[in-house]
Write a structure and sequence with these properties.
The complex is a heterodimer of chains A (332) and B (669). Chain A is of the alpha+beta class. Chain A has six helices and 18 strands. Chain A folds into three domains: 4-198, no CATH class; 199-219 and 264-332, no CATH class; 231-263, no CATH class. Chain A has helices at residues 22-31, 51-70, 73-95, 246-252, 280-296, 316-327; strands at residues 37-39, 46-49, 101-107, 110-111, 115-123, 130-136, 143-147, 152-160, 165-167, 172-176, 183-189, 195-198, 220-222, 228-234, 256-263, 267-271, 300-305, 308-313. Helix content of chain B is 49%, strand content 14%. The chains are: A alpha+beta (332), B alpha+beta (669).
């Protein structure tokens, strides 16, 4: 995978979003509006010589001067061949981006402080092939892709998520130096992708188990470690041998597993007020930590934030909902 | 850590070796060994066996390399030491090629080293060789920019070749139209290597040695008819001083001649010494490098405006710069002329000067013949008659020592042109008649395919010029008395019986002059080389100007510049259109191909599908029109729709194929 050395020695203007001027951004927004699928064309592709390209041009100049001073036709011819190669190189570098289609892929949520993974699908139409494409939001971490035999490929790119909330990676950089490295063709594409960044989980704070342990309020939960016999079900591979109902087997020739159950005694409310006196972000981070902790022990929990209340539940989709509520709390 | 792709590295090492190869003969042996060592080291680094040299070893190499070049060549000034340094830097760079930018440096140096070879040679095979090298260097450049997944150099080379081929039309435009201007500053030229050719000193035997070579001396293209063979006396230099110690004829001290003459100058102190008679002969000469200063011309040439070239007092051209590269010039000569009707006492003295104490027998003979002749003209005729008697023209003259002219005239009596010319001038001078030796070439091979005369080293010749009151200088060739064939048809027929023509050189196409097809082939190759030298290598500012005048009329530099820019970008646009607008041939999925085949079959039954008509609608319509085919059509359509939804499973395509086959069977049943 390319590292910083890939961009070593190139002209890196326009590379980072911060460096792009307001005017350029406005122009980009007009010429290349956000869309889930973008095909690169002459309105979107920039091309400039790299530092190597400048050196190459200087080499050609030196050769022409040598040709003049030595009055040597073959020196001229070689200098002109390289100059022409330089010009043809522009076309080939441009060709290595134009017509390429970028489609927004998946964007996985992440926790603040981690990297968010975005996937972009590169597609080619027709017989034209593309080589050595570099793609990513972060100029230091560009993914490399070829589209030679394959019609499409996926490029994964990571963005460090520093803040909770909605992460919009902004314009995606796609660039290429192929074939000669003398030119850099690039484009800034807004694929309208975004993802959620959850608060950074930080251990801390206490949660009070809610006192709802009575049978009326509690919910019956089937669990291996519980003590109360609940019923029988058909044996499934993987069931513990200790739980096989041997008596029932003797009666019916059928392997049955004993099921035990307990009443959930931990219907936890993760309440904003429980973390009073702490900075907002820390509160959210602590709540986030508890969400993960409770989810891993498969406990039931609900969330109460100012203006947000999520009824207790469990499972991954419940967790994601809760985390999303935490992520977007007072963000929009 | 970045690693240069294997592909690029392999191409780079090969290209580097090939680019250096033509220089090897000019390089000291240790640089060649250094090249090999660096290449091996780099390969070992790539294989992970060795590591890069540390900075002390590198410093030692760099310091040692430059010192070595300095001591090896004795100087750091001049072209060869520069190229030595360039190549040393080029190979040492291999040992610190870590980063991508180092690889670029190597590529750029490789292009430059490839270029320097052209300063020494510009022949067609060499040019082709260099273009192969350039293709490989370009492939290495492409390789640097490819991903690691790409491991076949074939595709990389292909890409580079395609790009270079696309660059060639643009290159041709630039080559023809780019304004060729005069050198901006003087540059070190290739140092003189020993070249075969006539020398500024003539002693018995050295022309006989020179004519053993079949190398080309120059080619002359005439405007209009080519003069008779026996008129093709190419004057190179005039030897008018006899050195008794070495028994050799040498050039006059240059200071005595005064100023040289240029075409644009009007009358100077000696321009009236030349009288041109009759019709002029115009010709252009492409001269092979001699590393000497003299040019060859037919008598009597008009002064020329050629840069750094002047007409010397004895009517030959002198270039103030040594002819180190192939050189082209145009001249006009008058085969009928009169020069130096009057000769000053000083020059009469110089042209009759011979050492007092040598060749006494020759002097005695000359005095005797002169006494028996009434006039200088009769004296000349009597001396020539002497040669007609028992002298033999041979390519293997015996070595003469001591009083060489005495020995030749009275003992060996076997000689080559320099013996005859040298002894003849000596006799004339001994008889008090001003005379001088002229050295150059005589004759040449007429190439009908290229309509030029090729003059080779074996056409080298020496003859004499004798001065008469009122008539001026007259050419006298004593060889023509001994061996008239030499003057009318060349050396080979003159020494035919002797079997000595080019006897000392190995394989030469020249030796097979009697085999027709080899001669034809040789003339053909010669003609191609001639056009190459005249129009490609010899595409000088003046040639460019006359060519552009021919096609664009009287144009100035600005117009040419505009034509250049216009054509260049025009062709670039065409290339761009070719590259970018080329329609992409998207391959259809097999099911679609089969379905279209089905549509074509129905088309033959006058049931074509409308534009945009869906398969189901089409099937219904076609089925109504041809109830007999309806089941078949329905089967095919169903199979197609199913195959399309089941995502191109091979078995589904097979079902579709079968349905079409069944329908066809029904159709033609």
């Amino acid at each position: 995978m390319p590292s910083a050395s890939v961009k070593d020695g190139r002209l890196d203007g326009f590379l980072s979003a911060e460096k792009r001027s307001e005017r350029l951004n406005r122009w980009l927004d007009e010429s290349s509006p956000p869309a889930n699928s973008v095909t690169l064309n002459q309105r979107k592709i920039f091309i400039l010589p790299t530092r190597q390209g400048v050196y190459f041009a200087l080499l050609v100049c030196a050769m022409v001067i040598a040709g003049i001073n030595y009055q040597n036709s073959m020196v001229f011819a070689l200098a002109f061949l390289l100059l022409s190669l330089f010009m043809v190189g522009i076309l080939h570098t441009y060709r290595n981006l134009s017509g390429l289609t970028l489609v927004a892929g998946t964007a996985r949520p992440t926790f603040a402080g981690d990297d968010a993974e975005f996937t972009v699908v590169l597609k080619r139409l027709g017989s034209r092939t593309y080589e050595s494409l570099q793609i990513g939001w972060n100029a230091e971490m560009l993914a490399t892709a070829d589209l030679i035999e394959n019609e499409e490929c996926r490029a994964r790119s990571f963005i460090s998520a520093t803040k909770r909330g909605r992460l919009n990676p902004g314009r995606l950089l796609i660039q290429t130096f192929y074939p000669l490295g003398l030119f850099r063709a690039w484009s800034w594409v807004d694929l309208d992708m975004s993802t959620i960044v959850y608060p950074r989980p930080i251990a801390g704070g206490e949660i009070q188990s809610s006192s709802a342990t009575s049978e009326e309020e509690g919910e019956l939960v089937l669990r291996d470690g519980a003590e109360d016999f609940y019923g029988l079900r058909e044996y499934q591979p993987g069931d513990s041998i200790r739980h096989i109902a041997w008596k029932a087997y003797a009666r019916s020739d059928k392997l049955m597993t004993k099921q035990y159950a307990a009443y959930a005694d931990k219907r936890v409310w993760l309440d904003w007020e429980q973390f009073a006196g702490i900075d907002v972000e820390y509160r959210l981070s602590h709540i986030c930590h508890w969400v993960l902790a409770l989810n891993s022990t498969n406990d039931e929990y609900g969330l109460r934030l100012p203006g947000v209340e999520i009824q207790p539940g469990r499972g991954d989709s419940h967790r994601d909902g809760v985390l999303k509520a935490l992520a977007l709390f007072e963000v929009d | 850590m970045y690693q240069i792709p294997r592909n690029a590295l392999v191409l780079m090492l090969i290209a580097q070796a090939l680019v250096i190869l033509p220089h090897i003969m000019r390089l000291p042996l240790w640089i060649t060994l250094l090249c090999a060592a660096c290449t091996i080291w780099r390969v070992m680094v790539f294989r992970g066996r060795w590591s890069y040299p540390n900075k002390w070893i590198k410093a030692f190499f760099v310091f040692g390399g430059f010192l070595g070049v300095g001591f090896g060549y004795g100087t750091l000034l001049g072209l060869e030491p520069w190229i030595g340094i360039l190549i040393v830097a080029f190979v040492l760079k291999l040992l610190e090629m870590h980063q991508q930018r180092d690889a670029y440096t190597v590529v750029i140096l490789a292009y430059f080293v490839a270029l320097t070879g052209f300063l020494f040679e510009q022949s067609i095979p060499y040019t082709l060789y260099i273009y192969v090298c350039v293709t490989l260097v370009t492939a290495a450049l492409v390789g640097i920019n490819q991903t690691m997944f790409n491991v076949t150099p074939r595709k990389t080379i292909r890409k580079a070749s395609v790009m270079l081929l696309q660059a060639i039309p643009l290159m041709l435009v630039l080559f023809v139209l780019f304004p060729r201007i005069a050198p901006l500053w003087t540059v070190p030229l290739p140092t003189n290597v020993a070249r075969t050719g006539v020398s500024y000193s003539m002693s018995p035997g050295n022309i006989a040695e020179l004519v053993q070579s079949d190398e080309l001396a120059f080619r002359a293209t005439f405007e209009g008819d080519i003069p008779a063979y026996s008129d093709l006396y190419w004057r190179g230099l005039v030897l008018s001083y006899f050195d008794g110690d070495n028994q050799s004829w040498n050039q006059e001290r240059p200071g005595l001649y005064g100023r040289t003459l240029r075409g644009s100058e009007g009358v100077t102190e000696w321009s009236d010494a030349m009288e041109y008679i009759g019709d002029p002969v115009s010709y252009s000469i492409i001269m092979e490098p001699t590393n000497r200063n003299w040019l060859f011309s037919l008598t009597l040439p008009k002064p020329t405006d050629l840069k750094r070239v002047g007409l010397v007092r004895d009517f030959r051209f002198y270039s103030f710069r040594e002819i180190g590269t192939r050189f082209r010039y145009e001249l006009t000569s008058y085969l009928d002329f009169r020069t130096d009707r009057n000769l000053s006492d000083f020059w009469r003295y110089r042209y009759t000067l011979i050492p007092k104490n040598d060749n006494p027998e020759t002097k005695k003979l000359a005095t005797a013949i002169r006494a028996g002749s009434d006039s200088p003209a009769e004296f000349l005729a009597n001396v020539l008659r002497l040669y007609a008697d028992d002298y033999v023209y041979t390519l293997r003259p015996p070595i003469v020592e001591g009083h060489t002219i005495d020995e030749f005239l009275f003992e060996s009596k076997r000689g080559f042109c320099e013996h005859f010319a040298g002894s003849f001038v000596y006799l004339m001078r001994a008889g008090g008649v001003p005379a001088r030796v002229v050295v150059g070439y005589q004759g040449g091979e007429f190439n009908r395919r290229g309509s030029y005369v090729a003059v080779h080293q074996f056409d080298a010749h020496a003859w004499a010029e004798v001065w008469f009151e009122n008539d001026g200088w007259v050419r006298v060739d004593p060889t023509s008395i001994v061996a008239p064939e030499r003057i009318t048809s060349g050396l080979e027929s003159a020494v035919f019986g002797e079997d000595t023509f080019l006897a000392d050189i190995g394989l030469s196409l020249m030796k097979f002059r009697s085999t027709l097809w080899i001669t034809e082939l040789r003339l053909q190759i010669g003609a191609i080389n001639h056009y190459w030298d005249a129009w490609v290598v010899g595409y000088t500012p003046s040639v460019q100007m006359s060519l552009l005048r021919q096609y664009f009329g009287d144009v100035d530099q600005t117009t040419i510049g505009m034509i250049l820019v216009g054509t260049f970008f025009g062709i670039l646009m065409i290339t761009a259109a070719f590259l970018l607008l080329k329609r992409s041939h998207r391959k259809l999925a097999p099911v679609d191909q089969e379905y279209l085949r089905f549509c074509r079959i129905l088309e033959g039954e006058k049931l074509e599908r409308f534009l945009g008509e869906g398969p189901l609608d089409y099937a219904t319509r076609a089925g109504e029109q041809r109830p007999d085919l309806a089941p078949g059509i329905r089967a095919v359509t169903n199979a197609y729709i199913k195959a399309n939804f089941i995502d191109d499973q091979p078995e589904e395509v097979e079902i579709l194929r079968k349905a079409i086959r069944n329908m066809k069977v029904r159709l033609f049943a």
